[in-house]
Specification:
The complex is a heterodimer of chains A (246) and B (255). By secondary structure, chain A is of the alpha/beta class. Helix content of chain A is 35%, strand content 25%. Chain A has one domain: Rossmann fold, CATH 3.40.50.300. Chain A has 9 helices and 10 strands. In chain A, strand 1 and strand 2 (14-24) form a beta hairpin. Classes of the chains: A alpha/beta (246), B mainly alpha (255).
């Protein structure tokens, strides 16, 4: 569904993405992990066409994205920081997005109902807490039931109830055969929803494997222990030698 | 496009800064008009109010607004929308909102208190200045990644056109006073939208000669009608060219 080939992007001297090649299929839930500044957000933004890569190609459903824009109707995006026009109400923001996406007539309003948004739809965006804004962002990402969902730190700032609700929604969408990309630093939140892990470091791809494979190769059961094992420097070598042994 | 303009307007017309700006202009207009009974004098004072407030407030407010809505712009660009369309829609929204503020603050009282071509020209020049300086703000937003630097650039741009440019022009006139520099001077004035707005109104007021070298020149060389058409065309160029450059740069910008 998404195919990335030799993607490279640098900001001045800093290489944010260095020769990344990846292929994602529908039905997968992929966790993008890595330390701060490892290029996760840049990768996501490249897929959305917000960052223009200097080399490499990205294909979505077999079509190169280049400077096209229509492909974005297949993607739902939840940004890391949701900031909205101050003097608009929640209801107006949702109305606006619906008006922009005239091509879509069937709305998935499960999250809107779940977060009880209609009760506060008259509130101005400037008066909302960070968590509520995050809820609005989540609702907008799922609203047009896109085939691909890109969620940048979705559970940061959400209360446990809302976070659980969102995780359940993600699991259901995955069961529906959608491709879901998530970045998060809260590994415990990813534990039950993720199927694959992409680990980036300093713009380079360290590994792209299923959770089961990683658990076997590191000998750990918990996701955070698995990641801790990857973060230790010699992982690459160990991983390779493990593969050679089998 | 229309959807985005509508919602930007919806947001801006409830914005406190826009409301305060409108009220400030209205208070100034009414109080300035009440001072004398001479129409030309009243319009001249209003011209000065316009030239003092419209450029700096338009450019500063628009720059800050563009930078503040950068995240929302990003979210909208994750929807199937062309970059150029979104940028121009946001510009149209903000320029319309500031234009309405000027029309309500200065235009309405002027229409009630004065009549004649000069009053209409004043309103047109104020609206054109609003369009120009919000277009320059858009260009600044596209060229700078950082909000603080962007605001700095906006202040410098406004001060350059309001103060510095005339100083440079004077030193140019002074150093070349032995040569026939009228023609090149005419061209140089077209490089400053604030001067163009001033001339546009002065040509209608018959006080061009009183208001210095540039006004007299335009009167002498171009005559009233040609001069007015020329200045309006120049000011429209000052709106369109920054917009075109901004749209072009924005297409390749990393957000």
């Amino acid at each position: 569904m998404i195919e990335i080939k030799q993607l490279t992007k640098s900001f001045k001297k800093f290489k944010a993405l260095d020769d990344i090649s990846l292929r994602f299929q529908s039905g997968q839930t992929i966790s993008l992990l890595g330390p701060n500044g490892s290029g996760k957000t840049t990768l996501i933004k490249s897929i959305l066409g917000l960052v223009i890569p200097e080399a490499g190609t990205i294909c979505i459903n077999g079509e190169q994205i280049k400077s096209h824009w229509a492909y974005r109707s297949k993607i739902g995006y939840m940004p890391q920081i949701g900031r909205y026009p101050e003097n608009m109400t929640i209801g107006q923001v949702i109305q606006m997005l619906k008006a922009i996406r005239k091509d879509c007539r069937h709305y998935d309003e499960e999250l809107i109902a779940g977060f009880d948004i209609p009760a506060s739809s008259h509130k101005m965006m400037r008066s909302l807490s960070g968590g509520t804004r995050q809820k609005v962002s989540a609702c907008l990402a799922f609203l047009f039931s896109p085939g691909i969902l890109i969620l940048d730190e979705p559970t940061a700032g959400l209360d446990p109830v809302a976070s659980e609700l969102l995780k359940n929604k993600i699991a259901r969408e995955r069961a529906n055969g959608k491709l879901i990309l998530i970045t998060s630093h809260v590994l415990s939140d990813l534990e039950d929803i993720t199927s694959h892990i992409v680990y980036l470091q300093e713009g380079k791809l360290v590994c792209y494997k299923t959770v089961e494979e990683l658990k076997r190769s590191t000998g750990q059961e918990k996701l955070n222990k698995v990641i801790a094992a990857i973060m230790q420097k010699n992982y690459r070598k160990e991983c390779l030698s493990y593969e050679n042994d089998h | 496009m229309r959807t985005i303009i509508k919602y930007v307007l919806l947001d801006l017309l409830r914005n406190r800064t826009v409301i305060v700006y409108t009220l400030l202009l209205a208070v100034l207009t009414v109080s300035v008009s009440g001072i004398g009974d001479n129409t030309a004098k009243g319009l001249l004072s209003l011209l000065n109010v316009t030239l003092l407030f419209v450029p700096i407030i338009s450019i500063l407010f628009s720059t800050i607004y563009f930078f503040n809505s950068a995240e929302f712009t990003e979210l909208l660009l994750a929807q199937p929308i062309k970059r150029g369309t979104l940028l121009l829609a946001e510009y149209t929204g903000i320029a319309t909102a500031l234009g309405i503020a000027y029309l309500a603050g200065v235009g309405l009282p002027v229409c009630l208190l004065y009549d004649g071509l000069a009053a209409i020209t004043l309103i047109i020049s104020g609206v054109l200045l609003t369009l120009i300086f919000s277009a320059l703000a858009l260009l600044i937003f596209v060229l700078f990644k950082d909000k603080t630097r962007g605001i700095g650039a906006a202040i410098i741009t406004a001060l350059f056109f309001m103060l510095l440019f005339d100083g440079l022009l004077l030193s140019f006139i002074y150093s070349f006073s032995d040569y026939p520099i009228e023609q090149p001077l005419l061209g140089l004035i077209s490089l400053n939208p604030v001067d163009l707005a001033r001339i546009l109104v002065l040509l209608q007021l018959d006080v061009a000669v009183m208001m210095g070298y540039s006004g007299a020149l335009f009167k002498q060389f171009l005559g009233s009608v040609t001069g007015s058409v020329y200045t309006v065309v120049c000011m429209l160029c000052w709106t369109v060219i920054p917009l075109l450059i901004a749209a072009r740069v924005f297409k390749k910008k990393d957000l």
